Amino acid sequence: xxxxxxxxxxxxxxxxxxxxxxxxxxxxxxxxxxxxxxxxxxxxxxxxxxxxxxxxxxxxxxxxxxxxxxxxxxxxxxxxxxxxxxxxxxxxxxxxxxxxxxxxxxxxxxxxx
Length: 113
Fold this sequence. Notes:
The protein is α+β, with helices and mostly antiparallel strands. The chain has a domain at about 35-110. The longest helix is centred in the first third of the chain and has 11 residues, at about 10-20. The chain has helices at about 10-20, 30-35, and strands at about 25, 45-50, 50-60, 65-70, 75-80, 95-100. It has two helices and six strands; from the N terminus they run H-E-H-E-E-E-E-E. The chain has a six-stranded mixed sheet with strand order 1-2-3-4-5-6, with helices on one face. The N and C termini lie far apart (about 45 Å).
């Protein structure tokens, strides 16, 4: 008979500390763009110029990933021809702009960090 291993769900405070300490940080959108073109992984949370963006949408065609920041009312968009292809993010373009909408079914972590 095997013993069950207990797993504790992280608290909001645990997740906030993890995001502050472990999520990728970039000085500029251009630096982030270069990093993902060169193979850095995409994360649910990205810091750019000390602004935290939360992934809030992605399309199933592999062309766009959206991140939002409610505090600063900004959106970051990552566009590719097809991130599911062998080329992945090698042609990625990153744009930061004013955000016009927010999802109500996710937590934008910038409100806590």
